[in-house]
Amino acid sequence: MPTFKATSPEGVITEYDAALPEQEHLQPGWRLEQIIIAVASPDDPPPAPTTKYDGRRVLSKIEFRRLFPDATRPYVDEFNATFEAHPALSVDQKRSIRSGLEDYKATSEVNLDDPSTAMMIGLYQALGILTADEAQGVLNG
Amino acid sequence: MADKFIIHGATYNGDGTTSSEAASAGAAGAWNNVEVIIGTAVGYGSLDAGDVVYIRSKSSAGADLTITTGTAKNVGKASLTGTQQVRWILDNGTVWSGIDGTLTLTLSANVTYTILAGNILEAKTQDAIAFTGWASNPNGLMFKLSKGSSCIKTLFDNTANTSNGAYFNFEGWLYEPHIKLGYRTSYGIVCVANGQAAYLVNPNIELTLSAEKDPVFSSGGTGTRVVCYGGKISGSGAVSDVPVAANPTTNNGDILLYGMNYPYAMQLTTLSWNVASLNTFIAIGSDGALGSTMDSYVGRIDSRRDGNYPTCNATLPDSVGTAWSFLLSPRNAQPYAPMTLPISKLYSSADATKTITLELLVGDAFTEINKSNCWAEIAYTDATTDERVLYSTIDPAAGALTTSTTTWSATTYGAVTFDKRKIAYTTPTSIKQDTQVVVQFFIAQPQVTTSEDLIILCPDVQLS
């Protein structure tokens, strides 16, 4: 049964289900709408991820730091300060981290779409400093 | 590639191939569900790349069409690639005589309508296709126009929001959009994806809230652009302290407005530019005539006639010869990043040496200005050699600018009092007849007191 919404010339709204609209609502001065409720379907796009900065992808350093959960951020800092002695890291990995941290020092902003950002976040996840959800949360912005 | 038809609410669902209601399910006739536009299967027949889908703008019962959703929805046919397109036309009487209604797609929750790539939505009557709605406290993306998609004469309205804002992310073309903006977050109308562009042709942008101070446009990704051709910004929210353009961060893209009118009280931008930023905001013809504004890291240059700046020799090519000039506000001009303004003049007299003179007003508190940080580079065609030559007036010894006695309409602007100065240079060789003389003006001195350290320049270079 279709749903109709009729707005009178005075602005009074009437909504009702009927096979056909009332004839009065088709008269000049009235606005008649047929309301179609679009229900969820499997083909609907996924909801946009919640972002901290309105979807902005280029962040200041402090904004970037605030993407890390409060409880986790100290562990990230600790890792950055001590990774040279980390037994699980290869020489190549340490070289990459060193370079990544130098890049971070040299720039005033962090681009979340920069592959090196994803690489560092992925590394934190691989080492168990961030959970998968936390890593995705950082990359979502 | 064919014409297809939709009559929402028809008794039977046809195969989409004719504009009449089908006599039975699957028979020749229109599809009976407008939700085909948001991805519902057609049932009979097929929707193919290249199709033009005509939508009757009132249901079979004679009512306007309103689709409401609380879940994110894609609009148009999915998976179009390359040059494939599907055009959706909301008819206004051409196909269905006398039928001129509306199709409103409204949101009842914090979700997004996304027009998929390759889909073109065309309202034959202005605003007859409308995207509206949203619940309270949205602060997010309301509507996205994907790369390769277009909307024609469509209304986008976020004024149902009662707090915070909703923004629009455009990566395609909008022809004659009507955009009503209330609360709009720091984004407003934005192009987010790196390297993409939003093009708005003759947009009618209404700002409805005077209390909302967020920008109208922003360019939110690296290398992005928002470009407007024609159009206007108006409404009760188009007031002072509302920036036309801003970027969420300083290293993003350009905002380019060609012939878009907006009130002088609005500022092109209030952005605090970062030294690393190379992007520029440009508004050409923003005063309804030829007046323009450019803002970048180094500062602002403005020639809007409604700025009412003091004038000297230059006149607009209008019916009354309105006088005009440039106001220069060199916020961060430095030797490594000078503010520069190129001016050209066609030299049409016989070959001759000439004295080229640029008239200036310099704020009397701008005492740091001298010949080492305020100069011109003059290029012309040498009449003897037929080569372009370049001479500079820069004086590393920092001599004082030459005092001028020419007549200006005023030597004050607001609270600022100006000194009359000029840059003059006599060419050592003859200028060739009917060639272009280019005078590139430079300032390499930042403002010390922003409100007073101004320069006004007459763009009519004198050749005597």
Number of discrete domains of chain A: 2
The total domain count of chain B is 2
Rg of chain B, Å, rounded: 28 Å
The most extensive interface between chains reads: A-B, 36 and 46 residues
Please tally the β strands of chain A and state the result.
Answer: 5
Structural class of chain B: mainly beta
How would you characterize the overall build of this protein?
- The complex is a heterodimer of chains A (141) and B (464).
- Chain A has 141 residues and is α+β, with helices and mostly antiparallel strands.
- Chain A folds into two domains: 3-35; 58-140, no CATH class.
- Helices cover 37% and strands 17% of the residues of chain A.
- Chain A is built from five helices and five strands; from the N terminus they run ββββαααβαα.
- Chain A has helices at 61-65, 73-82, 91-106, 115-126, 132-140, and strands spanning 3-7, 13-17, 31-38, 58-60, 109-111.
- In chain A, the strands form two sheets. Chain A has a three-stranded antiparallel beta sheet, with no helix packed on it.
- The longest helix of chain A is centred in the C-terminal third of the chain and has 16 residues, at 91-106.
- The radius of gyration of chain A is 27 Å and the shape is rod-shaped.
- The two termini of chain A are 44 Å apart.
- The relative contact order of chain A is 0.13.
- With 464 residues, chain B is mainly beta.
- Chain B has two domains: 3-324; 340-463, no CATH class.
- Chain B contains no helices and 37 strands.
- Chain B has strands at residues 3-6, 52-55, 64-69, 73-75, 86-90, 103-107, 113-115, 119-123, 129-133, 140-145, 150-152, 154-157, 166-170, 173-175, 178-181, 189-191, 197-201, 204-207, 217-219, 225-229, 232-234, 245-246, 254-258, 281-284, 293-296, 299-302, 326-329, 339-347, 355-363, 374-381, 388-392, 402-403, 412-413, 416-426, 435-443, 455-457, 462-463.
- Chain B has a 19-stranded mixed beta sheet that branches. In chain B, strands 3-6-9-12-15-18-21 form a seven-stranded parallel beta sheet, with no helix packed on it.
- In chain B, β25 (293-296) and β26 (299-302) form a beta hairpin.
- In chain B, 49% of the residues are buried.
- At the A-B interface, β3 and β4 of A face β3 of B.
